[in-house]
Amino acid sequence: MNAYLPKAYKILSIHAETDIDFTYVIEKQEPLIGGQFMEISIPGVGEAPISISDFDEESLSMTIRKVGRLTDAVFNLVPGDTLFMRGPYGNGFDLDLYKDKKLIVIAGGTGLAPVKNVIQHYVKNNDDLKSLQVITGFKSPRDLLFEEDLKKWASKIDLTITVDVGDEFWSGQTGMVTSHISKLDLSTHKNTKAIVVGPPLMMKFTTLELIKQGVLEENITVSFERKMSCGIGKCGHCKIDETYVCLEGPVFNYTKAKQLLD
Fold this sequence. Notes:
Elements: E1 7-16, E2 21-27, E3 37-42, E4 46-51, E5 54-55, E6 59-65, H1 69-74, E7 82-89, E8 102-108, H2 112-124, E9 131-138, H3 147-154, E10 158-163, E11 173-174, E12 192-197, H4 200-212, E13 220-223, E14 239-240, E15 243-244, H5 245-248, E16 251-253, H6 254-257
Parallel strand pairs: 8-9, 8-12, 9-10, 10-11, 12-13
Antiparallel strand pairs: 1-2, 1-7, 2-6, 3-4, 3-7, 5-6, 13-16, 14-15
């Protein structure tokens, strides 16, 4: 089998999250783990890695931002059209690590997408954890993702939604996600696990603040997608020293991730 050869999948539905972020629900064939990614493509246009934001027995969801030639073409597709994909690739989140633990999930912007399925899992299976606390931050109220899901989560878990800059219609929290970490209950920090996903600088200062508050480095998991291209460790675009992010990641324990510097 040609590892570079994608398969055709049917788009089931499309939902607008923001002006430039749309969630595509696509038929599913392969087993998945939250945190993995797919390589999506349109023949003659290009290919790119996209995180899987959610999945069930029959479909998977990917939240795609309109940022270039390929995504421009994807935004022209409608339900019933075909999208080419290969995967899934990468290591996802190991849910066994969090069983009977306190779990903190901190996501910035589109970083909420790769960890959305993990949050959904524990909202539905809250007995698997001692507690779940989520902080998610966006640039502005117009940039919120998964608003209907956020409303459901707010009624069931300890959820903080914050924006960098509010407006006259925003009555929620403001400030960077790091400014809200000190408000978390970290009294049993040795039994607290954390997941951090977002832009590189956001993850850097968030993990440093968690460590400052007493969370152990080995209890922190991060996810990042660095210049991934082929997804199978052949092109070398994502290689840092001897580590291929597409193969060993994009989910890493922080003790490993902190060494992956250019």
